[in-house]
C-alpha cells in the first residue's frame, strides 16, 4: 500500500518534471507503477550502449509494474551528474548508471547510494558504495583476442593491427592491456596500434584508406568493436588486400552486427560482450524486494564466435531452460580447517547442498594441494555432475583441470581463484574480491591512523596468509596499491602465518625476540592470525587495539567481539557463506543456464561504530 502510494506521488511529481525534462516520457497509468527505475546512460550513440538500452527495455516490459526513465549524458560527466540529480528529483526507486568517467561519478554514486540502491554497469566506480556492479571483463576480452591472433597466424610471423576505441576510454584501455600483455612474449610479432576517436565504422574505413601503410604486412586485425571491424573490412576490400583476418568485439545478433558479419564471412571472429541489461532489471527487482543473496559484482562471460560455432552459439542463445535433473552429484574439494572462516564456509556449503537436494561429496585437503588434486581425480572417476574447487594455492592446476574438462565435468571455483593457461578450464568463480579487501584495509589505516609527520612514518607489520594462496597474494596487492598513495606509511615487517591463530602468534613472538616493539599497526590477512597476534602482544604487556592498532580481514564473531572489547580496531569482511549462491549456480547450470564469469560477494567494513548491530546475528 505504502509502495503504491509512493509510486503514485512519484508519478505525479514526474508527470510534471519529466514532461519538461525528458520529452516523450510520461506515465499514462501512474497508479500501476510499482517501481520507477532511473537509467543514466553515458551516451546514446555507441551501438553497445544502444543495445544495453534495448535489453533493459525488453526485460522491463516483462514486469508490468516497472517503469524506466532514461537520460543521455552525451559522454559529458557534468551532464551525467546533472542527469542523476534530475532522476532523483523524479523520485526514482533505484538508479542504474553506466558512468562516462569513473573518477568523477564515484562520489555522486556514493551519495545516491545513501538513499536508494544503485546498480553500476559496464565500468565500475571506486570503492564499494553501490549495490551491484554488472559488466564484462575487458582484460579477458583482450586476452581472448590475443589467443585468436596466435591461432590465426598459426606459427607464421606477421603484422597485427590493433584498432582501439577513443583514447580516454577505460574499456578500450583495459582491452588493449589484456591483448598486449598476452602477446608480449611473442616478440616476433609486429604489433601496431591505432585509435579511432568516435569508434565508428566509417571513421575506421576512412582512416585506413587514408593511412594505407598501417596495413602493410598485416595478417590479423583486432578491432575493439564489430563496427570498427566492419570499417576495416570495407577498407581492405577497397584497397584490394587479401588474406587479412579480422576479429571484432560485441557479438550482437543483427544482420549487420558481429554475428551477422561472421555468418557472411566479412569478419572471422567476434568476441561477445554482453550488455547485462536483462540481469540489471532482474537484480533491480531482487534488490527492491529485499531478496537475499544479491552479489556485489556480476562479471559476464565473453565467448569467441567464428563461422564454425556461430549456429551452435545462436541456438544456445535461444535455448529454453529445462528443469534440473532429479539427482545432482557434486564433488567438493575444500582447502582445510585452518580458520574459523573456513569452518563457516564448509558448513554453509554443506547445509545449502542439503537445502537444494544436491548430493555433496566432501574432501578436506588439510592445506595440501597434492591431496586436493587426488580428491579431484576421485571425483572425476566417480563421474560427478560438477566439481566445486576451493584451491589451496593459485597455480599448478592445469593438468588435473584438463582431465576434468576431457571428462566433461564442469568445475566451479569457490572462494579462491587460480592462474591457468586456458581460462576455459573452469566455468565460473564465486567469492570475494581479495584485492579490494586489501585496498579497504589500507584506506581505513590512512583515514584512522594519522602519520602526523611521525619520523619514519606509521610502521606496519603484515601477517600474510598461506604463501601462493590467492587471498594472500591479492590482499597484499590491494593494500600496497593504496599504500603507494600515502607517503607517511610503510610495511616494515611481513611474514606468512598460514592463516592460522598459531601462525599470527608466532610471528609476533619471533619479532619480539629480536626487536623492541616499534610497530604502530598490525595488518593481518585474516582474523585468526590477528587474534593470535593480539594474544602474544598482551602476554608481552602491549595492549592490542590501544598501543598498536589491529586490522584484519574476515569478520568472524571472535574478531567482532575483540572490536567491542577494544582489542581490535577494524575488520574488513570476507563473506564465507557462499553455499546458497554456489548451489543456485549449480542448479542453474544443470538447467542449461549460462553462468557469469565471476560472482563477487557483498562485504562490509566493521569498526566499533557498527559492530554491535551485526554481532547478534553472526553465526560464525
Ligand atoms: O580464502 C579465504 C581465506 O582463507 C580467509 O580469509 C581465511 O580465514 C581462510 O582461511
Mean pLDDT: 93
Strand order of the largest sheet: 2-1-3-4-5-11-23-17-16-15-13-14
User: Roughly what percent helix?
Assistant: 40-55%
Q: Low-confidence spans: pLDDT under 50, at least 5 residues?
A: 1-27
Give a verbal description of the structure.
With 620 residues, the chain is an alpha/beta fold. A twelve-stranded mixed β-sheet has the order 2-1-3-4-5-11-23-17-16-15-13-14, with helices on both faces. Strands 7-6-8-9-10-12 form a six-stranded mixed β-sheet, with helices on both faces. The two termini are 38 Å apart. Bound molecules: alpha-L-arabinofuranose.
Characterize this entry briefly.
This protein has 620 residues and is an alpha/beta fold.
What are the key terms here?
620 residues; alpha/beta; twelve-stranded mixed β-sheet; six-stranded mixed β-sheet; 21 helices; 24 strands; globular; binds alpha-L-arabinofuranose
Map the helices and strands.
Blueprint: H1 2-21, E1 35-41, H2 47-60, E2 66-72, H3 77-89, E3 94-97, H4 102-113, E4 118-121, E5 132-136, H5 138-153, E6 159-164, H6 170-183, E7 190-195, H7 201-210, E8 218-223, H8 226-239, E9 245-250, H9 258-263, E10 269-272, H10 277-288, E11 297-300, E12 304-306, H11 310-318, E13 328-334, H12 340-355, E14 358-364, H13 369-381, E15 386-389, H14 398-406, E16 411-414, E17 428-431, H15 434-448, E18 458-464, H16 470-483, E19 489-496, H17 501-514, E20 521-524, H18 527-539, E21 549-554, H19 557-564, E22 570-573, H20 579-590, E23 598-600, E24 605-606, H21 612-615
Parallel strand pairs: 1-2, 1-3, 3-4, 4-5, 5-11, 6-7, 6-8, 8-9, 9-10, 13-14, 13-15, 15-16, 16-17, 17-23, 18-19, 18-20, 20-21, 21-22
Antiparallel strand pairs: 10-12, 11-23, 22-24
Bound molecules: alpha-L-arabinofuranose (AHR).
Residues 338-339, 341-342, 415-416, 471, 499, 526, 553-554, 574 line the site of alpha-L-arabinofuranose.
Amino acid at each position: 500500500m505504502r509502495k503504491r502510494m509512493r509510486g503514485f506521488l512519484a508519478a505525479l511529481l514526474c508527470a510534471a518534471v519529466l514532461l519538461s525534462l525528458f520529452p516523450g516520457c510520461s506515465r499514462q497509468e501512474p497508479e500501476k507503477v510499482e517501481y520507477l527505475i532511473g537509467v543514466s546512460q553515458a551516451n546514446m550513440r555507441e551501438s553497445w550502449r544502444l543495445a544495453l538500452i534495448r535489453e533493459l527495455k525488453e526485460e522491463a516490459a516483462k514486469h508490468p509494474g516497472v517503469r524506466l526513465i532514461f537520460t543521455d549524458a552525451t559522454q559529458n560527466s557534468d551532464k551525467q551528474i546533472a542527469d542523476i540529480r534530475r532522476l532523483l528529483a523524479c523520485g526514482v526507486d533505484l538508479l542504474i548508471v553506466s558512468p562516462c568517467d569513473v573518477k568523477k561519478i564515484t562520489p555522486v554514486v556514493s551519495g545516491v547510494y545513501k538513499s536508494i540502491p544503485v546498480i553500476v554497469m559496464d565500468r565500475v566506480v571506486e570503492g564499494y558504495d553501490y549495490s551491484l556492479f554488472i559488466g564484462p571483463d575487458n582484460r579477458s576480452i583482450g586476452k581472448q583476442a590475443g589467443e585468436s591472433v596466435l591461432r590465426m597466424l598459426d606459427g607464421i610471423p606477421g603484422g597485427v593491427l590493433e584498432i582501439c576505441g577513443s583514447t580516454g576510454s577505460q574499456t578500450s584501455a583495459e582491452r588493449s592491456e589484456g591483448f598486449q600483455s598476452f602477446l608480449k612474449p611473442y616478440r616476433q610479432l609486429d604489433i601496431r596500434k591505432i585509435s579511432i576517436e568516435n569508434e565508428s565504422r566509417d571513421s575506421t574505413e576512412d582512416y585506413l584508406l587514408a593511412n594505407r601503410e598501417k596495413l602493410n604486412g598485416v595478417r590479423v586485425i583486432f578491432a575493439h568493436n564489430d563496427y570498427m571491424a566492419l570499417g576495416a573490412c570495407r577498407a581492405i576490400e577497397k584497397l584490394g588486400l587479401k588474406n587479412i583476418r579480422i576479429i571484432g568485439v560485441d557479438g550482437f545478433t543483427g544482420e549487420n552486427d558481429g554475428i551477422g558479419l561472421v555468418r557472411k564471412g566479412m569478419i572471422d571472429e567476434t568476441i561477445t560482450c554482453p550488455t547485462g541489461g536483462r540481469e540489471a532489471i532482474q537484480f533491480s527487482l531482487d534488490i527492491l524486494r529485499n531478496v537475499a543473496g544479491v552479489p556485489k559484482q556480476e562479471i559476464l562471460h565473453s565467448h569467441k564466435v567464428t563461422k564454425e560455432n556461430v549456429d551452435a552459439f545462436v541456438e544456445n542463445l535461444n535455448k529454453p531452460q529445462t528443469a534440473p535433473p532429479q539427482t545432482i552429484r557434486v564433488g567438493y574439494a575444500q582447502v582445510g580447517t585452518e580458520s574459523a572462516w573456513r569452518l563457516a564456509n564448509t558448513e554453509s556449503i554443506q547445509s545449502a547442498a542439503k537445502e537444494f537436494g544436491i548430493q555433496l561429496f566432501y574432501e578436506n585437503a588439510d592445506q595440501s594441494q597434492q591431496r586436493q588434486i587426488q580428491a579431484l581425480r576421485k571425483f572425476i572417476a566417480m563421474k560427478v555432475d560438477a566439481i566445486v574447487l576451493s584451491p589451496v594455492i593459485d597455480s599448478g592446476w592445469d593438468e588435473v583441470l584438463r582431465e576434468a574438462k576431457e571428462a566433461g565435468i564442469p568445475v566451479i571455483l569457490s572462494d579462491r581463484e587460480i592462474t591457468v593457461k586456458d581460462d576455459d578450464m573452469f566455468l565460473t568463480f564465486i567469492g570475494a574480491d581479495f584485492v579490494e579487501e586489501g585496498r579497504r584495509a589500507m584506506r581505513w589505516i590512512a583515514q584512522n591512523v594519522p602519520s602526523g609527520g611521525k619520523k619514519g612514518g606509521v610502521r606496519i607489520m603484515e601477517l600474510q596468509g598461506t604463501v601462493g594462496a590467492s587471498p594472500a597474494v591479492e590482499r597484499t596487492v590491494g593494500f600496497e596499491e593504496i599504500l603507494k598513495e600515502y607517503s607517511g606509511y610503510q610495511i616494515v615487517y611481513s611474514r606468512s602465518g598460514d592463516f592460522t591463530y598459531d601462525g599470527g602468534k608466532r610471528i609476533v613472538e619471533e619479532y619480539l625476540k629480536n626487536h623492541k616493539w616499534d610497530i604502530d599497526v598490525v595488518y593481518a590477512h585474516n582474523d585468526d592470525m590477528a587474534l593470535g597476534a593480539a594474544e602474544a602482544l598482551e602476554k608481552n604487556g602491549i595492549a592490542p587495539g590501544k598501543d598498536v592498532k589491529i586490522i584484519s580481514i574476515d569478520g568472524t564473531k571472535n574478531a567482532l567481539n575483540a572490536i567491542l572489547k577494544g582489542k581490535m580496531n577494524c575488520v574488513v569482511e570476507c563473506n564465507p557463506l557462499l553455499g546458497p549462491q554456489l548451489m543456485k549456480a549449480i542448479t542453474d547450470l544443470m538447467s542449461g543456464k549460462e553462468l557469469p564469469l565471476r560472482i563477487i560477494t557483498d562485504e562490509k567494513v566493521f569498526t566499533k561504530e557498527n559492530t554491535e548491530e551485526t554481532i547478534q546475528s553472526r553465526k560464525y
